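INFO  loader      accepted 1 record
INFO  loader      residues=464
INFO  predictor   begin
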Amino acid sequence: MSEVFATTGTIAAIATAVVPQQGSVGIVRVSGSEAMALAQTLFHAPGRQVWESHRILYGYIRHPQTRQLIDEALLLIMKAPRSYTREDVVEFHCHGGIMAVQQVLQLCLENGARLAQPGEFTLRAFLNGRLDLTQAEGIADLVGAKSPQAAQTALAGLQGKLAHPIRQLRANCLDILAEIEARIDFEEDLPPLDDKVIISEIEKIAAEITRLLATKDKGELLRTGLKVAIVGRPNVGKSSLLNAWSRSDRAIVTDLPGTTRDVVESQLVVGGIPVQVLDTAGIRETTDQVEKIGVERSRRAANAADLVLLTIDASAGWTEGDREIYEQVQHRPLILVINKIDLVEERERITLQSKIQNPKSKIVTAASKNQGIDTLETAILELVKAEKIQAADMDLAINQRQAAALTQAKISLEQVQATIAQQLPLDFWTIDLRGAIQALGEITGEEVTESVLDKIFSKFCIGK
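INFO  predictor   done
INFO  writer      dumping tokens
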């Protein structure tokens, strides 16, 4: 068996981020049959405090042999089954930083616990029936959420809003299977099976699967975010645009061309979507070896981006250099940003925009004066919607694993319909119907393999 599947024994791990001289509290979590005994060995609660479930005790953590004081702490007790893992769980709430939690963890490991594998606490919660697989994945998404909308979508999964329709679809498939198998086993005692009714039920199930599959792209967008590259000639205002957009001074701004030599990154949220903005070096032919490296990195960033903001200088107009860069990035989703619009007259603006036939999406900004940022964000959201990245149902979004299983279920149901149309015996109907049932069961974990669990939970942090 894989390491992530080795769920025996009592496990321990640091359950909070450890930041030197920053965190005020650090938590060491212990789960398993020996959790309470380990806590009683390490923790001294003065007075007459009662060691009951769901109580917090105040006291000291000491080395059991030397009696050396390790930390003044709190102990949280959660006895099975009323805990995250449905096992006995204790948590040592220590002072933050590095040394206290690491020393407490080391004491736990020296006194019978083993270090938890990545995601093992949540894996135990799943195996013990507290969570289904969609809820477990919702926890991982919530921990890694990069925007409020991503967090809300993860919470929807954690609350079972994905599991419920999946279970209903699987139950409907099981009902159809029961009807078919009943005719196989008791053909003479039951009325003939109505093919049209079966086909109608399968079509309803397939339609619901299609609706769920439509949320995949939005789910990926919320989880991974949108990578946006700002490209253009030197000194057209790319760094000013980044600074105005991020409301910070992330990039150096001067009148000298070629100031930005490397890719500068900033993290933003636009319309609930996490956005990674890359300010790149100005693209031009140069003999400067350092700048040449920066230009090459700019080209790679543009090719890897989900969206390119091609920025030009309104006062310079549409130049041959702008055209050359456009030809290099026109295969990417693109917005033309006409910057420094404050430096030209209204008549010049109209003339400039009429000269530029492509790309279709064009906006104007005066980044140095923080003008046009709202228009830019609106254009980005409109382009995202036009690319059909964002689905209408904002409360639900499936991931790649779930989408693959749903796709397989849909293919199996289509095969059932083809089998019925070919008037093959009822035994053949059940083959692909069972395939659809299995695929739907893989989403919630009712039918799951060790390799699937290994892949899912190995991505978790150790303390979760």
